[in-house]
Amino acid sequence: MDSGLLTKISNVVFATLLAIFLLLFPAGSLNAAPKALVMKPFNQLSDQSKECAACHKEKNPSIYAQWGRSKHYGANVGCYECHKAEPGDADAIRHEGVDIAVIVSPKDCGSCHVQEVEEFDASHHAKAGQIIGSLDNFLAEVVEGSLMLNGTSPAAVNGCWQCHGSEVKVLENGDLDPATWPNTGIGRINPDGSIGACSACHQRHQFDMVQARRPEACGKCHLGPDHPQKEIYEESKHGINFYAHVDQMNLGSAKWIVGEDYDSAPTCATCHMSATRELAVTHDVGDRISWTLRPAISEKIDAKDKALGKETKSWEARRADMQNVCQSCHTKSMVENFYIQFDSLVELYNEKFARPGKQLMAVLQQENMLTETGFDEEIEWTWFYLWHHEGRRARHGAAMQAPDYVQWHGLYEVAERFYIELVPQFLEVVEKAAHNGNQEGAERARAVLADILARSEHAWFSGNEPDEVKRARKEAQEAFKARYLDDSN
């Protein structure tokens, strides 16, 4: 074919394609700012929700827009369907001619989401608001608190309760007590008697799955010096992969099955809640956890229920479910080896530091060497830091594969706290008691410490290591220095 004719045909085809492209995508449209939300007609909404939406569109445009992007909107679930109340409800108010409640509780959500609410009610999250009497609450209410907000400490109101939840109280005039509301704490105790706040994880009013599946959703509460799960996740290979390949995570998938809809990395939701090819979604976040890493001494997750004679899912079954998640990406042998490593770290912490530390604190209490007031003596702060901060960090670091949290933010600080603070402070308290006449109690206390330090794991500190062990360590240290030609380390 003549080359000139080919050129003419190519030009015609190009011009035609360009015209079609410009019709589909007018000039500037690809880089234009997002258009205003276009809502479908309200023809299937209830009359009450139509009235709510018409008003709130003007008064609260962001809430209106968020709702317009939600699945609730697509299912014709409007303001009234979630906020409606009976006149006799504890938090019911008369608003624009209808009875509503400001708080949408799990009881309200449960009218549609029955299974999710039942699973949540069985979870540890549901108990998070029951913190009265805990050491954490004593710190916030008493040690940190003084100037009161309706009889409560602002430290607790603005701190603890915003994650744990609190009892939301209704004032005599029907208003919600500002000391207890707003509050989206996960274990919130609602005026209708239900427990929890679905909006702790599913942010109002869009309730977007993408937002709930990202690690930041959990990071509102699970971060900081005593439970830094979000920071631990970010250090782990899982977190590194998530942020590097978030565009491949398919976070908007309706079913979102790991190994099927995505494979770049797990998030918090993946491991603790979301579906696998064999497991269904669960809203009981502890359903796949085998250890409890929260208390001073870790125990298997079912130990307390077993001791009380309660029927409960065994820790072995929970671990099997978690391993099912792991095996969506990893081999069975790799998963099993990880758990051997993890278990060994928890046992090391328990046996070398936590049980001995608890023994030391217990004997001081038994021999009346400490006052009944909590946190008024230095050794009480030391012990609290050891298990509540450093000990938790080490255990959670091992659980979620963050080596720096196991070592430098974890067991290194546990060891320093135990040997250099707890033991000397223990001896100081005992000597003071002996000086004040409690000689027998002092002898019993010293015997407890002596028994602990006589154990092989503490031999380096007591100076009782075998000579061959000392010699081998010295040779290794000298070899290290020679290798790096530096004797400063």
UniProtKB/TrEMBL annotation:
The keyword Metal-binding belongs to this UniProt entry's keyword annotation: no
Keywords on record: Oxidoreductase, Signal
Residues annotated as domain Cytochrome c-552/4: 109-167
Family annotation (Pfam families): Cytochrome_C554 (PF13435), Multi-haem_cyto (PF13447)
Keyword Oxidoreductase tagged: yes
TM segment ranges: none
Record's protein name: Hydroxylamine oxidoreductase
Source organism (scientific name): Grimontia celer
Organismal lineage: Bacteria, Pseudomonadati, Pseudomonadota, Gammaproteobacteria, Vibrionales
Gene responsible for this protein: hao1_2
